[in-house]
Amino acid sequence: MRKTVLRDVLHERLNKYPEAAYAYAEQLLSDEGALGVPRALRYGVTTDVTLPQELRQDLLFNSPERLALKKKVDWENLIANRSPWTEELNKIIRTYLAGIAVMLPGFADTAAS
């Protein structure tokens, strides 16, 4: 219920102030906006933003060893297989939820609301 109210309020604000929503999104996506998470949480960025040296040395999760573990995403393969992978995941989730519904009477009633 709370998510619905929040969604409705956000939707109303975005419709009422589209310029403000656009400006907010632009700020978040800017280089300065992308530095907000590293400054606040000391996590590295996942974009091509250049981190200042004083911030780079304080990061918690971007050691050279950790960076070496990152794998490149094969976007073409991901896009090509997105639909079948999504369907497979949905089947797994449906099967899991059906199993829970059998074990817990009344689960289906609460999951639907």
How much strand? under 5%
Helix content: over 70%
**Unreliable spans:** none
Number of helices: 8
Mean pLDDT: 77
Distance between the termini: 9 Å
Q: Based on DSSP secondary structure assignment, what is the total number of beta strands? A: 0
Show the helix and strand layout:
Blueprint: H1 2-16, H2 18-29, H3 31-34, H4 36-41, H5 53-56, H6 64-69, H7 75-103, H8 107-112
Helix pairs in contact: 1-2
At a glance:
This protein has 113 residues and is mainly alpha-helical. The chain has eight helices and no strands.
Outline the structure in words:
By secondary structure, the protein is mostly helical. The chain has a domain of 42 residues. Helix 1 crosses helix 2. The chain is extended, with a radius of gyration of 21 Å. The protein starts with a helix and ends with a helix. The mean pLDDT is 77.
